[in-house]
Write a structure and sequence with these properties.
The chain is mainly alpha-helical. Among the domains are: 43 residues; 27 residues, no CATH class. It has a two-stranded antiparallel sheet. The radius of gyration is 48 Å and the shape is elongated. The termini are far apart.
Length: 139
C-alpha cells in the first residue's frame, strides 16, 4: 500500500502517547467523575430494565395468543332426521303426595302467598281469598 504525503497545512496524526493532555483546570474532579460513573450505571440499569420488561411483554403476548388458540371452541355438528321413535318401558311406581285440601270460606279470587312446592310452617298463611268486587280496595 502506498503512503500518501501529508497535505500542506495539515498536521500529521499523533500517536496516543503524543497527544496533549488538557490543562489541569479542564480535568474533571473526583466528584464529577463519580457523577459521570453513576450516570453511566443509571443508564445501563435503565436500559437493562427496558430490555427485561420488553421481553416479559413479548412472552406474555405469545402466551395469551397460544392460550386463546388452544381454547377456541371447535364447532360440533348434529344432524337430525325426521321420523318416529317408538319405545315403551313398563315399570311399577309409587307416587306419594302429602297435601291437604282446604275449602275457601267464600267465593272470589285466590291469591297465593307462597310458591308452589315450597314448604310452609304450621299456622302460616299460604293463600288469600279476595271476595268478588273487593280487588280494587286491595290495590
Amino acid at each position: 500500500m502506498r503512503r500518501q504525503a501529508p497535505r500542506r497545512g495539515a498536521q500529521p496524526a499523533k500517536r496516543p502517547s503524543q497527544r496533549r493532555r488538557p490543562p489541569l483546570a479542564a480535568q474533571p474532579t473526583a466528584q464529577e467523575r463519580l457523577r459521570q460513573i453513576e450516570r453511566r450505571k443509571a443508564r445501563s440499569r435503565a436500559f437493562s430494565m427496558t430490555v427485561i420488561v420488553s421481553l416479559i411483554m413479548v412472552v406474555t403476548v405469545f402466551a395469551i395468543v397460544f392460550i386463546m388458540r388452544e381454547a377456541a371452541p371447535s364447532p360440533r355438528f348434529a344432524f337430525t332426521q325426521e321420523g318416529r321413535l317408538d319405545q315403551t318401558l313398563e315399570a311399577t311406581a309409587l307416587i306419594a303426595r302429602e297435601e291437604n285440601l282446604c275449602h275457601a270460606p267464600a267465593d272470589g279470587t285466590l291469591k297465593p302467598l307462597v310458591f308452589e312446592g315450597s314448604q310452609s310452617a304450621r299456622g302460616q298463611r299460604v293463600s288469600l281469598v279476595i271476595p268478588d268486587g273487593k280487588e280494587a280496595e286491595l290495590a
